[in-house]
Amino acid sequence: MTAALPAEGRPARAGLLRLAGLALVGLAPALPSCGGEPPPAPNAPPALGPVARTRSAALTTAAPAPALPPTAEEGAEATRAMLETRVHGGQFRDLVFEDLAGLGDAAVVPLAAHALDTRLPADLRAAAVELLGALRSPAAAERLLGLAKDSPDAWLRAHAAWRLAACGSDHVVPGLVLRLKYERDPDAFLWVAATLGRLGCLAGLGGLMELAAREDARAALAAAELAAVVEPLGMDAEQALALWSGVDAEALPLPPPSDAQLREVWDLVLDLSGDTFQLRPVDDARYVLSRLGPWCAREVASALVDEDPWLRLHCAQVLETMGPRARVVEGQLLHALAEPGVAPAAAEALGRVGGPDAVPALLACAGSDRPHELRVGAVRALGTLGLSEAAGPVRTLFESLDAPAAPQDLRMAAATALVGLGEGDAAAAWLTERLGSAADASEAEVALGAWLRAGAATTRVGFAEALRTWDGHADPPGALPNTERAIARRRSRAASLAGQLAGLVGS
Fold this sequence. Notes:
This protein is mainly alpha-helical.
């Protein structure tokens, strides 16, 4: 079981931006001019440099990783004796803290080894975790993080995550966020999410809320931890989650990251470079970076001008996943549109991150004088933004591509964007044709499903019935998308919907 993390919501629809005459210029050769100002010309490409390596090196100097003393046999024996005293020492059990203070970080490695030693009773292993937490040092926090991430025992992961909250070392935050991705035990997830909240990161808040709402034995504990996280913020959980997920995330009174946490963040940014040939480190880095606060958006956005093209691309993808919480770097994404290597990804990121100010630039990037990949990304972004100023230009573009030689991926982007812009009627017939036979049938299927659901939600005539028929042809959960059965199902959907289109379009 995994407690679900909050969905990264789409940006809220903003009020209309008056751009008379701007919208239609430059979208396709056949588009007429409306007599307004021309779209903005692309800026000169920004200068590139070793941004990530320079920043990482500076932070490593300012906040080096915790160092551990070598393990000594006497240290292992002394800490084992402490565990026995802590568990079985009766009135003397608290004296171990004096001995622990004398050992300091020399106790870290043996205590961590005792915690992982399955030959020891569970109460001794738990005591080892407790004493690691009592050290309250960065080195102890590092070992607790390792236990919370890698121990095969869920109870030990939960215990280590709990003790991390009192260590006061926020450099463990990125590692705990990664644990959210892989944790399957609800108790361990609870403590990972709660500790993140206490350390100023709300990435697990939605999952904690879900656990608190369930009717099981851990709901009361989850509710108590949830209250402990949000009460210092001066708001309830729903308000905190709404702020964290939106453009006003900086309004949350959360502590800024330490240099030690920034060092960890920039190690992850370096994992996004072309030097990383394995997919998992890249995916893990994108996951973590996109779930940190707005301050992380600023760090990541500064690498949009790094000399490594893969790193620039992946940083744009991180910001796209971060969504509205990254609105603070909208201007940097707009500037990135001038760098050819990252421009398509920056355009798509603006669809999730940007607001009305992004519309003119995206319309310009959709123009026929721009590179094809950039046009596709910009049109997709306009649909994701969902701002009505783009509806007319995108519809004109879609209609201008009604020719066999026209790039069909661009037309699919325009059709999908029309659905997001509330103009799906204009593309429904073409999407239905694509659903029946084309290689891009899965994109058409997603767009048509969204169109039907939007129509049903607004009680348009016939849409509720059409949606029921549509859902009746759905694949079972976990079905593969391109099997013969899936293709046949899509064709059934297409045939059924084709017979209903006349009554739906314009209803």
